[in-house]
Design brief:
alpha/beta; binds pyridoxal-5'-phosphate
Length: about 450
């Protein structure tokens, strides 16, 4: 049999023409978003002051299986897609495993992550609606960069509220965002009411994604012709990321293979959800049954130690309520280096699929182990992985080692969501052995849980 090539490339014309909307196929829908004012399910009109219309419609859409990708977005996708599916031959050899390891690499654009897939779509729809300005939050900076890139291309103004620890740890990330023409504000800031409130209650805080979301939403509501956009968690973001999974499936078809195990790192859940959703369709259709694993940091363990309940998506409590796995909207995680995974909640779609065990497992990993896996991967496969993505690498390596022990030659697929060039402070700490693991105690988690709102009849 012919050896599978290192890189399984698709042609430009094989970039998917549609996004896959998994909600149309979920046998058990996720519980609706709730308006915290009325305690009734969110209607389209509730979303419109904050989100642009087409995205709000996509957010609530549970009927259309596929949504056509507009030409303008497709043209943009062509500048950096299709992304390669890679066979990690060198890593397999190093691990002496009979497993076949594949990864889908989304870091081959300046944002250094998959986030451009949704940024391009969100900016396009905002522009089409005649808006002139957007606000958003960014944790590690990848989303801010992706959005700044898309705003530069479609000619929109942008203000990015960047979690303060990242702003300070990653000055070059900030500079890249500014190079594309966006404004960057460290969050929490004095520029919003909620920022001032958070600062007065927690002086010296390094901020969190939840805080930055609150500030960006407040700023959008107070500006004309402006809307807020979010880089993960929401249904429409996960749907845009389905290009990852659709391309991956097409590439596997070319080599007549299918993954037994699929692994994704989960912050808000969009890259893992985008990678897995076309394969989950095969589970629903009873065609295949791949084993699905989500990986999160031990310092922010929403799936493995959180509660499945209604919570706000932000610390300022201005978003709708979403039923999801959460450690509480007021939980401020320790400054773990995987900034993109420091969100207190999880995509309502993935939360539901995990709750129903369509997604088989969630694992929490400590950062020193994650960086050990990252470093091994970089040496074998040449790509310097993002700390976020390295959570998936860690579990892929563990599964490959299990195969070595059992002699099974399973096909393992993981999402390599991005590159880590701006994370050298973290890599340096790992090399210097000054990196520490932070695992919250039950008491730490209880403090977070105490911030989950209690509304009669909602849980
Ligand atoms: C943002 C980010 C993540 C986590 O986000 P999800 O919404 O869970 O996909 C993972 N990896 C990288 C490189 C990121 O930038």
């Amino acid at each position: 049999m012919q050896k599978v090539p290192y890189k399984i490339y698709l042609e430009e014309k094989e970039i998917p023409k549609v996004w896959y909307n998994i909600r149309a196929d979920m046998p058990n829908p996720h519980d609706p978003f709730i308006n915290p004012g009325t305690l009734k399910p969110i209607k389209l009109d509730d979303f419109l002051p904050v989100f642009c219309k087409e995205l709000a419609e996509q957010e609530l859409d549970d009927t259309h299986q596929y949504i056509e990708i507009p030409d303008e977005i497709y043209e943009y996708y062509k500048t950096y897609r299709p992304s390669p599916l890679v066979r990690a031959y060198n890593l397999e050899k190093e691990l002496k495993t009979p497993a076949k390891i594949y990864y889908k690499f989304e870091g081959n654009n300046t944002s250094g992550s998959h986030k451009l897939n949704s940024a391009a779509a969100q900016v396009y729809y905002a522009k089409k609606q005649g808006l002139t300005k957007l606000t958003t939050e960014t944790g590690a900076g990848q989303w801010g960069t992706a959005l700044a890139m898309a705003c530069a291309y479609f000619k929109m103004d942008l203000t990015v509220y960047m979690v303060k620890v990242s702003y300070e740890q990653k000055p070059f990330r900030k500079a890249v965002i500014q190079t594309y023409g966006a404004d960057v504000v460290p969050s929490p800031s004095e520029t919003t009411e909620i920022g001032r409130k958070i600062l007065s209650e927690n002086p010296g805080t390094g901020g969190s994604l939840g805080c930055a979301i609150s500030e960006a939403m407040e700023a959008a509501l107070k500006s004309n012709n402006c809307r807020y956009v979010l880089g993960s968690v929401l249904n429409h973001v996960l749907m845009h990321q389905s290009v990852i999974g659709l391309e991956t499936k097409a590439a596997f078809e070319k080599i007549d293979a299918y993954p037994d195990i699929i692994i994704g790192c989960a912050g808000g859940g969009s890259n893992a959800g985008g990678l897995m959703s076309p394969f989950i369709k095969d589970k629903f259709d009873k065609k295949h049954n791949p084993y699905l694993i989500l990986v999160e940091p031990a310092s922010c363990p929403s799936l493995t130690r959180g509660r499945y309940t209604y919570d706000f998506c932000d610390t300022g409590r201005i978003t709708p309520l979403a039923k999801m796995y959460t450690v509480g909207n007021g939980y401020i995680p320790s400054p773990n280096h995987a900034g993109g995974l420091r969100f207190h909640g999880m995509s309502p779609i993935l939360s539901k699929l995990y709750h129903d065990r369509v997604i088989d497992e969630a694992r929490a990993e400590e950062q020193t182990n994650v960086f050990e896996a990252a470093t091994l991967f970089a040496k074998c496969e040449t790509i310097l992985p993002a700390p976020e993505s390295s959570h998936a690498i860690k579990v892929a390596i563990d599964e490959a080692i299990k195969c070595r022990e059992s002699g099974e030659s399973k096909t393992i697929l993981f999402g390599l969501s991005g590159t880590g060039y701006f994370d050298m402070l973290a890599y340096t700490q790992f090399m210097d052995k000054t990196m520490t693991d932070y695992i919250p105690t039950d008491a730490d988690l209880e403090k977070g849980f105490a911030t989950i709102p209690k509304f009669p009849g909602l849980e």
